[in-house]
Amino acid sequence: MKARTRDTVAAVTAVCTAVLLAACGADTGDEPRTQGRPSIGLLLPDATTARWETQDRPLLEKRIGELCAECVVDHANAKGDVALQQEQMNSMITKGVDAIVLVPVDARSLGPSVTKAREAGIPVISYDRLAEGPISGYVSFDGVEVGRLQGRALLRAMGDKVPGAEIVMMNGDPSDPNTKSFEEGARSVLGSKVKIGKAYDTLQWRTEAAHMNMAGAIAALGVESIDGVYAANDGLAAGSISALKANKVDPLPPVTGQDAELSALRRIVGGEQYMTVFKPFAPEADAGATMAVAAARGQRLDRLATAEVPTHDGKAVSAVLLTPVSVTADNMRDTVVKSGLHTVRQICTPELRAACVRAGLI
After folding, report:
1. Is the pLDDT of residue 20 over 60?
2. pLDDT at 312
3. What is the pTM for the complete model shown?
4. Mean pLDDT of 337-354
5. CA distances from 42 to 117, 122, 323 (A)
6. Can the peptide bond before residue 163 be classed as cis, meaning omega within 30 degrees of 0?
7. Closest-CA residue to 258 (of 86, 338, 115, 140)
8. What Rg do the C-alpha atoms of the chain give, in angstroms?
C-alpha cells in the first residue's frame, strides 16, 4: 500500500534496525511494481566520486534487502547532471515509489522536486547531503567535524612551519552543502595559524579541476611558498598531488583528503598524501536503509532519532549524524583495515611493500 508522508520522519541508527527483519532482493529496472510491494527510489549524484557506486549503493541495496523481503529498489545515477536528476525524481514520483533516498547533485535545485514528492505523499530521505525542500529525514556524518579533523592533521603535518605556514585550500563543489561544513570546520582549526595563499571551489568535485587549480596556485605563489594543501576529498587530493608532481615539487607538502578511497590509502602509505577521513559507509547505509524501509511502510521514526539539523527554511528535521575518523599511515590498520573497508593485500601493492612494512601494515 502507498506510504503516506509523516510530519516527522526521523533518521535512525544501526541500533534501531532490529525492528525490521528478513531478507530481500533489489530491483534496479523499470518493470511494473508488484501490487502491495513497497518500492524505494535510490538516486545518486555522480560517478566521479568512487564511493557512491562502489560503497553506498551496494551497502544500501543489501541492507534494504535484509530489512524488507517484499521491497524493490529503483536506482539511478545523475552523472553530475542536475537536470537529469530532476528528471529521475519526476520518474520516481510518476512510478509512485513509496520512499526516495536522495543524494542531491545540487541541494538548492532539487528543492522543488522534493516538494513535488512530498505533495505526492512520498517521503524523501536526504542521504549524506542535506537537500532543500520538505525532506522527511537526514543521515550523514558531522561535516564540520570532518573539516576539523582535516585542519588538525594539516597543522600537525606542517609542524614547526606553523604558525605562519601558507596553504592552498581546495574546497569541494559549492552546490554541495557539505562543502560549506567541511570548510567551516577546517577554518575553525586553521584560523590565524596559517595564511591561505589561494582558495578554490571545485565544480562537481572533479579531479582534473583540482589539478588545474593547483597548477594555477603554483604559478601564482611559487613552489617554495606552499607548505600544505587542504583538499576536501581524495579526488581533489589526487588532482592537487598530480599538479605538484608535474611541477617537480619535491618533497611534496602534506595534503589532506576524505573518503578513504583505495588509491588515497596507497598514496598515504607511499608518502604522497598525508591523511584522509574515513566515514564508515556501513553505519551510514544501515541508518539510511532502515529509515527508507520504515518510511516506505508508512511507519513513524521520530522516536528513533538521535539528532536534529536545521533545514534551509529554518525547520528542524530529525537526523543521524555519525562520527568521522582521521586516517594516516600510523593508524590505517586499526581503522580502514580493521573495519573491512580495504584489506592489507589491496593496499600494499608490490611497489609499496617496503612502505607498508614501515607503516606496520605487514
Report:
1. no
2. 78
3. 0.82
4. 96
5. 14, 13, 23
6. yes
7. 140
8. 21
